Amino acid sequence: MGTWPDGPAVLEIVVPAHNEAGRLPAGLGLLCAKLAGFPVRSEVLVVDNASTDGTDDIVLSWDGGPVPVRLVRCARRGKGAAVRAGLLATRAPYAGFMDADMATDLAALDEAIVLLREGRPVVVGSRRHGRSVVQGYSLPVRRLGAITFNRIVRDLAGGIADTQCGFKFFDGPLARAAAADLRTEGFSFDVELLAHCVRRGASVTDIPVVWRDRPGSTFSVRRHSLQCLLDLARIRVRAGRAPAGRAPAGPALPPVQIVDVMPGPVAPTVKPG
């Protein structure tokens, strides 16, 4: 186990979860085991995104050992809404998010925290990095769609080749400011989140990952492709209207009520998103 100094967490990791009761225990087990030996004090925030399968009960009963695991409730459906709620609930110097299936090998956390502490404001995993290892990448049509999508949005997201890998870490204040401006609730939210960081002058560093396709993804090419394209069009229009360093015009997402449920007898606190 790592030797942590006393004090608040240095790194907080958000895990969005919609009906993840089947995959969450294994994912949390891997993540907590990794963070228990990590060089900085870390916490996990699981965002229950309107689940109906007992996902929240798993989090509430979870014993992460030395790694605190907190529950954030987000009743508004959508991965973008869940990540926004989770990032707004953080308070650490560094924050980021990972998918509940832990498709990205956790060894990438070692390089990410080194780069963050060196002053890199945004560090993202990239399956298209020359040194990445990608195993079992789903259907060919999904892979082709991902490549096409990323070519279209590369200019918005700091020039990186893979905007959709579920492994992204940030300077904490930057993450919270970008999340506060986030309007996209669905799967295209990564592009907008990165665009808000780039607009604030932040560079984006991509790192190699070992990525393994996991069964049970909630993304469907048939059901979600059209909505992703519509969201992308809105993101591009708003980005064109926004002066550097300022939020784009248009209505923000409605406020999200964030409930931090801490282990033990402490009563839940409610904060506006």
UniProtKB/TrEMBL annotation:
Domain of life: Bacteria
UniProt KW Transmembrane helix keyword: no
The Glycosyltransferase 2-like domain, residue ranges: 13-153
Gene Ontology biological process terms, A to Z: protein N-linked glycosylation
The entry's keywords: Transferase
GO molecular function, one term: transferase activity
Pfam families associated with the record: Glycos_transf_2
SUPFAM superfamilies (alphabetical): Nucleotide-diphospho-sugar transferases (SSF53448)
Keyword Hydrolase tagged: no
PANTHER family per the UniProt record, alphabetical: DOLICHYL-PHOSPHATE BETA-GLUCOSYLTRANSFERASE, GLYCOSYL TRANSFERASE
The protein's name: Glycosyltransferase
Organism: Actinomadura soli
